[in-house]
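DM from R.C. (forwarded with permission)

"hey, sorry to bug you on a friday — could you get me a structure for this? deadline for the figure draft is monday and I only need the backbone to look sensible"
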Amino acid sequence: MTGSIKTERIATWKHGVVGELSELLDRYSVVGVLDISNLPASQFQQIRQNLRSEAKIVVAKNTLMKLAFQKASERKDQKLGEMAKFLGGQSALIFSTMNPFRLSKFLRENRINAPAKPGSRSVKDITIPAGETEFAPGPIVAELQRVGIKARIQAGKVVILEDCHLLKEGDVITREISDILAKFGILPLELGLRLRAAYETGMIFAGGTLEYDERKALEQIQFAWASAFNLAVNVDYPTSATIGIMISKAFIAAQNLALNACLPASQVMPALLAKAHVEMLGLAVTVGAKDKRSLDRGLMSMIGIAPDEAKLEKTPEEKPKEG
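My reply, with the result:
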Protein backbone atom coordinates (compact mmCIF):
# COMPACT_ATOMS: atom_id res chain seq x y z
CA MET A 1 0.00 0.00 0.00
CA THR A 2 1.46 3.41 -0.99
CA GLY A 3 2.60 5.42 1.99
CA SER A 4 2.37 2.46 4.36
CA ILE A 5 4.09 2.71 7.71
CA LYS A 6 6.77 0.18 8.55
CA THR A 7 5.92 -1.68 11.73
CA GLU A 8 9.52 -1.75 13.01
CA ARG A 9 9.60 2.07 13.21
CA ILE A 10 6.69 2.21 15.63
CA ALA A 11 7.39 2.51 19.36
CA THR A 12 6.20 -0.18 21.75
CA TRP A 13 3.25 1.83 23.10
CA LYS A 14 2.11 2.52 19.57
CA HIS A 15 2.13 -1.21 18.85
CA GLY A 16 -0.34 -1.52 21.72
CA VAL A 17 -2.66 1.11 20.20
CA VAL A 18 -2.57 -0.51 16.76
CA GLY A 19 -3.20 -3.90 18.37
CA GLU A 20 -6.24 -2.55 20.23
CA LEU A 21 -7.64 -1.00 17.05
CA SER A 22 -7.05 -4.22 15.11
CA GLU A 23 -8.89 -6.23 17.77
CA LEU A 24 -11.84 -3.81 17.62
CA LEU A 25 -11.92 -3.94 13.80
CA ASP A 26 -12.22 -7.73 14.05
CA ARG A 27 -14.89 -7.66 16.77
CA TYR A 28 -17.30 -5.02 15.46
CA SER A 29 -19.32 -5.21 12.24
CA VAL A 30 -19.51 -1.42 11.85
CA VAL A 31 -16.66 1.08 12.07
CA GLY A 32 -16.85 4.80 11.39
CA VAL A 33 -14.42 7.68 11.07
CA LEU A 34 -15.49 10.62 13.24
CA ASP A 35 -14.74 14.30 12.87
CA ILE A 36 -14.19 15.64 16.41
CA SER A 37 -13.02 19.12 15.43
CA ASN A 38 -14.05 22.02 17.70
CA LEU A 39 -15.91 19.70 20.06
CA PRO A 40 -15.65 20.63 23.76
CA ALA A 41 -14.21 17.89 25.94
CA SER A 42 -17.30 17.83 28.18
CA GLN A 43 -19.63 17.25 25.22
CA PHE A 44 -17.31 14.60 23.82
CA GLN A 45 -17.29 12.71 27.11
CA GLN A 46 -21.09 12.97 27.43
CA ILE A 47 -21.68 11.46 23.98
CA ARG A 48 -19.10 8.80 24.75
CA GLN A 49 -21.01 7.94 27.92
CA ASN A 50 -24.38 7.83 26.10
CA LEU A 51 -22.94 5.46 23.51
CA ARG A 52 -21.17 3.17 25.95
CA SER A 53 -23.74 0.36 25.74
CA GLU A 54 -23.81 0.27 21.93
CA ALA A 55 -20.55 1.73 20.64
CA LYS A 56 -16.94 2.41 21.52
CA ILE A 57 -14.99 5.52 20.55
CA VAL A 58 -11.20 5.48 20.32
CA VAL A 59 -9.06 8.57 19.78
CA ALA A 60 -5.60 7.95 18.33
CA LYS A 61 -3.08 9.46 15.98
CA ASN A 62 -4.15 9.37 12.34
CA THR A 63 -0.99 7.46 11.38
CA LEU A 64 -1.84 4.68 13.84
CA MET A 65 -5.44 4.46 12.67
CA LYS A 66 -4.24 4.28 9.07
CA LEU A 67 -1.91 1.43 9.99
CA ALA A 68 -4.76 -0.43 11.72
CA PHE A 69 -6.92 -0.05 8.60
CA GLN A 70 -4.05 -1.30 6.45
CA LYS A 71 -3.64 -4.42 8.56
CA ALA A 72 -7.42 -5.03 8.61
CA SER A 73 -7.59 -4.74 4.83
CA GLU A 74 -4.98 -7.50 4.51
CA ARG A 75 -6.53 -9.70 7.16
CA LYS A 76 -10.30 -9.14 6.98
CA ASP A 77 -11.59 -7.05 4.05
CA GLN A 78 -9.75 -5.00 1.46
CA LYS A 79 -12.49 -2.34 1.66
CA LEU A 80 -11.36 -1.42 5.18
CA GLY A 81 -8.16 -0.01 3.70
CA GLU A 82 -10.22 2.60 1.85
CA MET A 83 -11.44 4.02 5.17
CA ALA A 84 -7.98 5.52 5.71
CA LYS A 85 -8.68 8.25 3.15
CA PHE A 86 -11.30 9.75 5.48
CA LEU A 87 -8.73 10.36 8.22
CA GLY A 88 -7.46 13.93 8.58
CA GLY A 89 -7.41 16.72 11.13
CA GLN A 90 -8.98 15.76 14.45
CA SER A 91 -10.34 12.26 13.97
CA ALA A 92 -11.51 9.30 16.00
CA LEU A 93 -12.86 5.84 15.27
CA ILE A 94 -16.23 4.58 16.44
CA PHE A 95 -17.01 0.86 16.64
CA SER A 96 -20.60 -0.36 16.89
CA THR A 97 -23.13 -3.07 16.14
CA MET A 98 -25.69 -0.42 15.12
CA ASN A 99 -26.15 -0.07 11.38
CA PRO A 100 -24.49 3.09 9.96
CA PHE A 101 -27.79 4.94 9.42
CA ARG A 102 -28.97 4.39 12.97
CA LEU A 103 -25.53 5.34 14.30
CA SER A 104 -25.51 8.55 12.25
CA LYS A 105 -28.99 9.42 13.53
CA PHE A 106 -27.91 8.91 17.14
CA LEU A 107 -24.93 11.20 16.67
CA ARG A 108 -27.12 13.89 15.07
CA GLU A 109 -29.60 13.71 17.94
CA ASN A 110 -26.78 14.35 20.41
CA ARG A 111 -25.48 17.55 18.83
CA ILE A 112 -25.70 20.77 20.83
CA ASN A 113 -26.20 24.37 19.71
CA ALA A 114 -23.32 26.71 20.36
CA PRO A 115 -22.56 30.46 20.08
CA ALA A 116 -21.23 31.82 16.82
CA LYS A 117 -17.52 32.21 16.26
CA PRO A 118 -16.10 34.76 13.79
CA GLY A 119 -15.10 32.93 10.62
CA SER A 120 -17.39 29.94 11.20
CA ARG A 121 -20.29 29.10 8.92
CA SER A 122 -23.93 29.15 9.93
CA VAL A 123 -25.63 25.74 9.85
CA LYS A 124 -29.08 27.28 9.26
CA ASP A 125 -30.90 30.37 8.01
CA ILE A 126 -31.24 33.05 10.70
CA THR A 127 -33.86 35.81 10.66
CA ILE A 128 -34.17 38.62 13.19
CA PRO A 129 -37.93 39.30 13.51
CA ALA A 130 -39.51 42.74 13.57
CA GLY A 131 -40.77 44.07 16.89
CA GLU A 132 -39.71 45.43 20.25
CA THR A 133 -36.48 44.20 21.90
CA GLU A 134 -35.24 44.09 25.47
CA PHE A 135 -32.30 46.34 24.62
CA ALA A 136 -31.96 49.71 26.35
CA PRO A 137 -31.53 52.74 24.05
CA GLY A 138 -27.92 53.38 23.26
CA PRO A 139 -25.08 52.23 20.96
CA ILE A 140 -26.92 49.01 20.24
CA VAL A 141 -28.99 50.79 17.58
CA ALA A 142 -25.89 51.67 15.56
CA GLU A 143 -24.55 48.12 16.00
CA LEU A 144 -27.78 46.66 14.64
CA GLN A 145 -27.78 49.02 11.69
CA ARG A 146 -24.16 48.14 10.82
CA VAL A 147 -25.14 44.52 10.14
CA GLY A 148 -28.19 45.52 8.10
CA ILE A 149 -30.91 45.40 10.77
CA LYS A 150 -33.27 48.36 10.53
CA ALA A 151 -33.80 49.59 14.07
CA ARG A 152 -34.68 52.77 15.95
CA ILE A 153 -35.84 53.95 19.36
CA GLN A 154 -39.58 54.16 19.94
CA ALA A 155 -41.21 54.98 23.29
CA GLY A 156 -37.94 54.35 25.10
CA LYS A 157 -37.36 50.93 23.52
CA VAL A 158 -35.20 49.62 20.68
CA VAL A 159 -37.53 48.40 17.94
CA ILE A 160 -36.69 46.26 14.88
CA LEU A 161 -38.68 47.84 12.03
CA GLU A 162 -38.82 44.81 9.71
CA ASP A 163 -37.71 41.19 9.51
CA CYS A 164 -34.02 40.93 8.65
CA HIS A 165 -32.67 37.74 7.01
CA LEU A 166 -29.31 38.03 8.68
CA LEU A 167 -27.70 34.74 7.62
CA LYS A 168 -28.28 31.94 5.15
CA GLU A 169 -27.10 28.40 5.71
CA GLY A 170 -23.39 28.28 4.91
CA ASP A 171 -22.76 32.03 5.26
CA VAL A 172 -19.52 33.04 6.99
CA ILE A 173 -20.19 34.72 10.34
CA THR A 174 -18.34 38.01 10.82
CA ARG A 175 -17.32 39.39 14.22
CA GLU A 176 -20.05 42.07 14.07
CA ILE A 177 -22.74 39.49 13.32
CA SER A 178 -21.32 37.16 15.98
CA ASP A 179 -21.67 39.91 18.60
CA ILE A 180 -25.27 40.68 17.55
CA LEU A 181 -26.27 37.01 17.64
CA ALA A 182 -24.83 36.72 21.15
CA LYS A 183 -26.93 39.72 22.25
CA PHE A 184 -30.07 38.03 20.91
CA GLY A 185 -29.12 34.71 22.49
CA ILE A 186 -29.05 32.96 19.11
CA LEU A 187 -26.84 29.86 18.81
CA PRO A 188 -26.19 29.27 15.09
CA LEU A 189 -23.61 26.49 15.38
CA GLU A 190 -24.04 22.78 16.10
CA LEU A 191 -21.38 20.85 17.95
CA GLY A 192 -21.18 17.10 18.02
CA LEU A 193 -19.57 14.03 16.53
CA ARG A 194 -19.91 13.80 12.77
CA LEU A 195 -19.46 10.65 10.73
CA ARG A 196 -17.18 11.25 7.78
CA ALA A 197 -17.76 7.67 6.63
CA ALA A 198 -18.82 4.27 7.95
CA TYR A 199 -18.01 0.70 6.93
CA GLU A 200 -20.35 -2.30 7.20
CA THR A 201 -19.97 -5.76 5.66
CA GLY A 202 -17.95 -4.75 2.63
CA MET A 203 -19.67 -1.42 1.98
CA ILE A 204 -18.54 2.14 2.72
CA PHE A 205 -21.11 4.88 3.27
CA ALA A 206 -20.06 8.53 2.99
CA GLY A 207 -21.24 10.77 5.83
CA GLY A 208 -23.52 12.82 3.58
CA THR A 209 -25.31 9.66 2.45
CA LEU A 210 -26.06 8.74 6.06
CA GLU A 211 -27.61 12.11 6.90
CA TYR A 212 -30.88 11.53 5.09
CA ASP A 213 -34.31 13.04 5.80
CA GLU A 214 -36.35 10.22 7.37
CA ARG A 215 -39.70 11.89 6.72
CA LYS A 216 -38.87 12.49 3.07
CA ALA A 217 -37.61 8.92 2.69
CA LEU A 218 -40.83 7.57 4.21
CA GLU A 219 -42.92 9.69 1.84
CA GLN A 220 -40.92 8.39 -1.12
CA ILE A 221 -41.44 4.78 0.00
CA GLN A 222 -45.18 5.36 0.43
CA PHE A 223 -45.39 6.97 -3.03
CA ALA A 224 -43.44 4.10 -4.60
CA TRP A 225 -45.73 1.54 -2.92
CA ALA A 226 -48.88 3.32 -4.09
CA SER A 227 -47.51 3.58 -7.66
CA ALA A 228 -46.59 -0.11 -7.73
CA PHE A 229 -50.00 -1.06 -6.30
CA ASN A 230 -51.86 0.98 -8.94
CA LEU A 231 -49.74 -0.47 -11.73
CA ALA A 232 -50.36 -4.04 -10.52
CA VAL A 233 -54.12 -3.44 -10.30
CA ASN A 234 -54.28 -1.83 -13.76
CA VAL A 235 -52.35 -4.66 -15.46
CA ASP A 236 -54.17 -7.36 -13.43
CA TYR A 237 -50.99 -8.61 -11.76
CA PRO A 238 -51.98 -10.79 -8.79
CA THR A 239 -50.18 -10.17 -5.50
CA SER A 240 -51.23 -10.54 -1.88
CA ALA A 241 -51.98 -6.80 -1.84
CA THR A 242 -53.95 -6.67 -5.11
CA ILE A 243 -55.81 -9.97 -5.33
CA GLY A 244 -58.76 -8.73 -3.24
CA ILE A 245 -59.23 -5.67 -5.48
CA MET A 246 -58.89 -7.82 -8.61
CA ILE A 247 -61.57 -10.27 -7.43
CA SER A 248 -63.91 -7.38 -6.62
CA LYS A 249 -63.31 -5.88 -10.08
CA ALA A 250 -63.98 -9.23 -11.76
CA PHE A 251 -67.19 -9.73 -9.77
CA ILE A 252 -68.50 -6.27 -10.69
CA ALA A 253 -67.60 -6.80 -14.38
CA ALA A 254 -69.37 -10.21 -14.43
CA GLN A 255 -72.40 -8.75 -12.68
CA ASN A 256 -72.66 -5.90 -15.20
CA LEU A 257 -72.35 -8.36 -18.09
CA ALA A 258 -75.13 -10.55 -16.68
CA LEU A 259 -77.38 -7.52 -16.20
CA ASN A 260 -76.79 -6.23 -19.73
CA ALA A 261 -77.34 -9.70 -21.22
CA CYS A 262 -80.41 -10.33 -18.98
CA LEU A 263 -78.83 -13.55 -17.80
CA PRO A 264 -81.07 -14.97 -15.01
CA ALA A 265 -78.28 -15.72 -12.53
CA SER A 266 -79.18 -15.82 -8.84
CA GLN A 267 -76.80 -12.92 -8.02
CA VAL A 268 -78.49 -10.57 -10.49
CA MET A 269 -82.12 -11.71 -10.42
CA PRO A 270 -83.18 -8.99 -7.93
CA ALA A 271 -81.63 -6.34 -10.16
CA LEU A 272 -83.19 -7.85 -13.31
CA LEU A 273 -86.64 -7.89 -11.68
CA ALA A 274 -86.19 -4.32 -10.52
CA LYS A 275 -85.16 -3.29 -14.03
CA ALA A 276 -88.18 -5.10 -15.56
CA HIS A 277 -90.47 -3.42 -13.04
CA VAL A 278 -89.14 0.03 -13.96
CA GLU A 279 -89.52 -0.70 -17.68
CA MET A 280 -93.08 -1.90 -17.09
CA LEU A 281 -93.96 1.31 -15.30
CA GLY A 282 -92.42 3.34 -18.12
CA LEU A 283 -94.51 1.49 -20.68
CA ALA A 284 -97.64 1.99 -18.55
CA VAL A 285 -97.01 5.74 -18.43
CA THR A 286 -96.67 5.87 -22.20
CA VAL A 287 -99.80 3.82 -22.80
CA GLY A 288 -101.77 5.66 -20.15
CA ALA A 289 -100.94 8.99 -21.71
CA LYS A 290 -102.74 7.86 -24.88
CA ASP A 291 -105.62 5.95 -23.39
CA LYS A 292 -105.81 5.35 -19.68
CA ARG A 293 -108.70 2.99 -20.18
CA SER A 294 -106.10 0.49 -21.35
CA LEU A 295 -104.76 0.29 -17.79
CA ASP A 296 -106.31 -1.38 -14.81
CA ARG A 297 -106.75 0.33 -11.46
CA GLY A 298 -103.54 -1.16 -10.03
CA LEU A 299 -101.33 0.27 -12.77
CA MET A 300 -103.07 3.65 -12.62
CA SER A 301 -102.40 3.81 -8.91
CA MET A 302 -98.73 2.87 -9.37
CA ILE A 303 -98.07 5.59 -11.97
CA GLY A 304 -100.26 8.22 -10.32
CA ILE A 305 -103.22 8.39 -12.74
CA ALA A 306 -106.57 9.02 -11.11
CA PRO A 307 -109.21 6.53 -12.36
CA ASP A 308 -112.29 7.99 -14.15
CA GLU A 309 -115.01 6.18 -12.23
CA ALA A 310 -117.82 6.99 -14.71
CA LYS A 311 -115.95 5.60 -17.67
CA LEU A 312 -114.51 2.62 -15.89
CA GLU A 313 -117.86 1.36 -14.46
CA LYS A 314 -119.40 -1.36 -16.58
CA THR A 315 -122.95 -0.80 -17.79
CA PRO A 316 -125.20 -3.48 -16.17
CA GLU A 317 -126.95 -5.75 -18.62
CA GLU A 318 -130.62 -5.11 -18.82
CA LYS A 319 -132.71 -7.94 -17.67
CA PRO A 320 -135.13 -9.37 -20.34
CA LYS A 321 -138.67 -8.18 -19.88
CA GLU A 322 -141.10 -10.79 -18.73
CA GLY A 323 -144.05 -11.39 -21.05
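R.C.: lifesaver. The chain has a mean pLDDT of 82.
me: no worries. The chain has twelve helices and twelve strands.
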